[in-house]
Amino acid sequence: MVLIQAGSYRPLFRSEKEPKTIDVAAFYLDARPVTNGEFFEFVRAKPQWQRSQVKRLFADKAYLQRWAGDLALPAPADESAQQPAVFVSWFAAKAYCAWKGRRLPSTVEWERAAGAGFTVADGSKDTEFTGAILRWYSTPSSEKLPHAGSGRPNFFGARDLHGLIWEWTGDFNSVLVSGEARGDTDLDRGLFCGAGALGARDTGNFPAFMRFGMRSSLRAGYTIHNLGFRAAKDL
């Protein structure tokens, strides 16, 4: 895991009464997305999360559909073990994190980490980073995913927050969160995911609106070919 320093997140949408920025405490985040090999160890230890055993309430019928079986990774196994785990529901991702003694990051935490550039904490001030963001968002995901962690590290040392897969976060529709996500119990939430991002600072920030559209379309049981996750942990 890598340390994500304390900072702030600027929501894409907010009401007039909500703050312009949300403070984010320091936390630990996996340096790369969870891999097939790591998720394999989880389903072996927790058979209820194997492909043939999982309840439909917790994952749709596409869950782990690329795997060759309950305990069989896609061939060649040595290669696929290093690729990010996808076709994984929010419920399964949350269960994996709990098994590891961790949790899913909140959306504001994920956005804080993903908003860092290659060389500075504020990616909006890194022109190389902002250019890469636009290229990534305009390129379709490949059928064969690269190894998790093969991307360039950002300022905090985290890799592949952009350009590889979308990633689940612990809270739903958190673009509208008015405070620290884990403390907001007065809102009726579902669950949903974060996909790479700069904090939206203007109406021309195409990636921010693309993320919002993706997030608002998801449900906790959905599994998608380019949707995975990584874990977080409190200091």
Overview of this protein structure:
Helices cover 23% and strands 9% of the residues. The protein contains 6 helices and 8 strands. It has one domain. The protein is α+β, with helices and mostly antiparallel strands. It is globular and about 45 Å long.
What is this structure's SSE topology?
Blueprint: E1 2-4, E2 7-9, E3 22-24, E4 27-29, H1 36-45, H2 77-80, H3 90-99, H4 107-114, H5 127-137, E5 166-168, E6 193-194, H6 206-216, E7 227-228, E8 232-234
Parallel strand pairs: 5-7
Antiparallel strand pairs: 1-4, 2-3, 4-8, 5-6
**Rg over CA atoms:** 17 Å
Count of all domains:
1
Q: What's the shape?
A: globular
| Residue fraction in strands | 5-15%
- What's the pLDDT, averaged over the residues? 85
| Strand order in the sheet with the most strands | 1-4-8
Structural class: alpha+beta
Low-confidence segments: 176-192, 194-202
Helix content: 10-25%
Our count of helices gives: 6
Give the tally of β-strands. Answer: 8
Distance between the termini: 11 Å
Write the element-wise H/E pattern from the N-terminal end onward.
EEEEHHHHHEEHEE
Largest sheet: 3 strands, antiparallel
